[in-house]
Amino acid sequence: KTDIMNGKRGLIMGVANNHSIAWGIAKALRAAGAELAFTYQGDAFGKRVKPLAAELGSDILLPCDVEQIETVDAVFDTLKEKWGTLDFVVHAIGFSDRNELKGLYADTTRDNFSRTMVISCFSFTEVAKRAAAMMNEGGSLLTLTYAGSTRVMPNYNVMGVAKAALEASVRYLAADYGPKQIRVNAISAGPVRTLAGAGIADARVMFSYQARNSPMRRTVTIDDVGSSSLYLLSDMSRGVTGEVHFVDSGYHITSMPVLDELKR
Ligand code: NAD
User: Does the pTM of the predicted model rise above 0.90?
Assistant: First the structure.
């Protein structure tokens, strides 16, 4: 139990349901004392997110589709009006056509490449610019990425390319806003069973492979990601920016599977 987020206000983007990584993060932030606002994408998600936001004592629930920049502007206009300033933002948004989350990366279409990049990468830059304008010293921005950015994961394809660009943008944004003492970081989560995760072909195989072969012999939960986000969004990490922090049971440090013949 901690109160390190007492007095801090932040925006959570990307809750689709109670399996969403953003929901795990929101729960941890609220338990540590933060005041939260939420966005949702479209009415169908809105219906699911409304009771979740209420459960965490939030009465700010705003529609936002990052493909429509005016809806992003409207979110920050409302926050300016209601709160004036902002302490943190969680960006847990990603999308690619599921028909291209299988087969060859080389078959990616130009349309889906652009769309994936705008939603999964550039939206973080657009959000960061608007959020930073409302932040004082100590502001913190966090996005979610995956190790498919630097290593080839079967079927992850264009999402891996978008995550590589997202991680690069974390570093550039960290440099942009560092002088204002606003920090920008990413959490690279291991596979989690979510709506977005289910869009990747053979996700179940990847999930159980990582559970068997990560140092901790398990996958991570949304609460594991939530706890780590507290560090990156609070003053505890006040000297940390531009980082990609792995929350993946250590899978990324491995170089070979746990083979029976090597089992101790
Ligand atoms: P999720 O489906 O619960 O969340 C994805 C969110 O993206 C949804 O809330 C959806 O509404 C939102 N979104 C998609 N297109 C949007 C748009 N145009 N405008 C606004 N919102 C939009 O799945 P999740 O796994 O919790 O995904 C959250 C983040 O975590 C994503 O960036 C994802 O790539 C990343 N991530 C997921 C995993 C995993 O295994 N699930 C692992 C590492 C990183």
Answer: yes
